[in-house]
């Protein structure tokens, strides 16, 4: 395992690095002037201090968003389309600065950060086009003189609660459809990575989004109280959240006080299955793409890797060899392939999973410990062989760079193991048997399946899970419906 060096943040447009909240079209401090520090996880150096807002600021942001909705909801789809395309262009023009901000606060490599911002921008482009295609419907009436018409209308003020692991992409995936539908928004960005959100909102302001349509309430100390306000305030009509299952359950209970519309993308525990007839080299590449992207800190990454016993040794050897060639370090360095984890607690969880697996008989093929010689939160990319199906890593989402390999014998056995979890976000498998491909794809209890691929995320697909991985879908032709109400109108007397 090799370590890359450290580089510094240098922006072409320093005005994109904002440290305040954004309410009513103005950059504002917290009322009490409180701030929280944001650290670079690769160096543990302070990037800056951001306004730490509370419930009072959240209420004000919601009230302003409610007023702005009265006019924004009356704009045409074409007007919203044009503004979103301006934002898309600004995101492209400022792509390198946005990538550097993301890498500095999140730690992922600059290559991954560029990809994430392109992914985020693709949602803005997609939903710009969807803004002019919120079609209604006419339903033939069984009664003479009556016409049945169905129309779509924006739901209202939306609370958008985003995660630290994809701070740009989740803004694109949530804010773009909200704006396209004619909704206004109050965003609570993650305290670990607020700068990407603030930079994108600055670009939205430059693109011509009217004052009050987008509001941002950063917070760290008041996280629970602000989150509660964003879920229980009656002016808010819709909540979109990406994060852990326990937090999703809490937010859903709070949203239930006024029966708000919700979409939750919660935790995952993705199975990755390699059958005996798989293309092993393709399966290895797919496992790397799924498992080690963002150093394993993705909700759709492979968490349990089941490999048929007849190809197990070959797969494990090839995967370990590839992983051993990774270079970990500061994401700004062009030689770095994998960056740090987000904080110390993430390191502790990964080590706990590794230690538990080893105690139950697993062997470490690569990695298995915290990286030495680097100042940040680095853990060596790890491959574990002969993992017990009862190990913690199979039951909990690791959210780190650990590939846990488990042998299986039959299709029925591995489907049972894959589905033996309370969550169901994504699942992956590799096989060249077309019959098996259909059987397994339909049998996996997940919202999304990757068959012979480790990459599934696209702006054109309905992203979401089943069971305790949440409800609702983001992206694709279904995505804008999450931000709209369906209204039926009966026209009589004709």
UniProtKB/TrEMBL annotation:
This is Succinate-semialdehyde dehydrogenase. The active site is at residue 265. Belongs to the aldehyde dehydrogenase family. It catalyses: succinate semialdehyde + NADP(+) + H2O = succinate + NADPH + 2 H(+); succinate semialdehyde + NAD(+) + H2O = succinate + NADH + 2 H(+). Pathway: Amino-acid degradation; 4-aminobutanoate degradation. One of its GO terms (molecular function) is succinate-semialdehyde dehydrogenase (NAD+) activity. The keyword Oxidoreductase applies. Residues 27-489 form the Aldehyde dehydrogenase domain. Keywords: Oxidoreductase. One of its GO terms (biological process) is gamma-aminobutyric acid catabolic process. Its EC number is 1.2.1.16. Pfam families: Aldedh (PF00171). One of its GO terms (cellular component) is cytoplasm.
């Amino acid at each position: 395992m090799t370590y890359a060096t450290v580089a510094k943040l240098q922006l072409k447009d320093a005005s994109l690095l904002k440290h305040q909240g954004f309410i009513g079209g103005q950059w504002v401090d917290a009322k009490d002037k409180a701030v929280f520090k944001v650290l670079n996880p690769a160096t543990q150096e302070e990037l800056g201090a951001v306004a730490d807002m509370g419930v009072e600021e959240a209420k004000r942001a919601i009230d302003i968003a409610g007023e702005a909705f009265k006019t924004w909801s009356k704009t045409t789809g074409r007007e919203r389309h044009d503004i979103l395309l301006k934002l898309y262009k600004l995101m492209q023009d400022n792509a390198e600065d946005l990538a550097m901000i993301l890498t500095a606060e999140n730690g992922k490599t600059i290559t991954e950060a560029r990809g994430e911002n392109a992914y985020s921008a693709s949602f803005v482009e997609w939903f710009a086009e969807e803004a002019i295609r919120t079609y209604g419907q006419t339903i033939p009436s069984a009664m003479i003189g009556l016409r049945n018409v169905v129309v779509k209308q924006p739901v209202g003020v939306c609370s958008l609660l985003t995660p630290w692991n994809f701070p740009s992409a989740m803004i694109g995936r949530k804010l773009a459809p909200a704006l396209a539908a004619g909704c206004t928004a109050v965003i609570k960005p993650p305290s670990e990575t607020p700068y990407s959100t603030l930079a994108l909102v600055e670009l939205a302001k430059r693109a011509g989004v009217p004052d009050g349509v987008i509001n941002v309430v950063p917070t760290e100390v008041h996280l629970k109280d602000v989150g509660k306000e964003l879920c229980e305030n009656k002016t808010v009509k819709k909540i979109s959240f990406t994060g852990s299952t326990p937090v999703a359950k809490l937010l859903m209970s709070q949203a239930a006080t006024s029966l708000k519309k919700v979409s939750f993308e919660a935790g995952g525990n993705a199975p990755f299955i390699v059958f005996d007839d798989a293309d092993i080299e393709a399966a290895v590449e797919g496992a790397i793409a799924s498992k080690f992207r963002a150093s394993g800190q993705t909700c759709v990454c492979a968490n349990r890797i089941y490999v048929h016993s007849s190809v197990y040794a070959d797969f494990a050897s090839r995967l370990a060899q590839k992983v051993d060639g990774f270079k970990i370090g500061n994401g700004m360095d062009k030689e770095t392939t994998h960056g740090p984890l987000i904080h110390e607690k993430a390191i502790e969880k990964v080590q706990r999973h590794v230690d538990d697996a080893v105690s139950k008989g697993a062997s470490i093929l690569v990695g298995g410990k915290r990286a030495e010689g680097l100042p940040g939160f680095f853990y060596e990319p790890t491959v574990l062989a002969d993992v017990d199906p009862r190990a913690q890593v199979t039951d909990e989402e690791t959210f780190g760079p650990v590939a846990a390999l488990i042998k299986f014998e039959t299709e029925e056995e591995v489907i049972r193991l894959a589905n033996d979890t309370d969550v169901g976000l994504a699942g992956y498998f590799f096989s060249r048997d077309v019959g098996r491909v259909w059987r397994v794809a339909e049998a996996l209890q997940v919202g999304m399946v990757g068959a012979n691929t480790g990459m599934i995320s696209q702006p054109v697909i309905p992203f979401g899970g089943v069971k305790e991985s949440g409800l609702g879908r983001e992206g694709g032709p279904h995505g804008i419906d999450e931000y709209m109400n369906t209204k039926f109108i009966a026209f009589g007397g004709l």
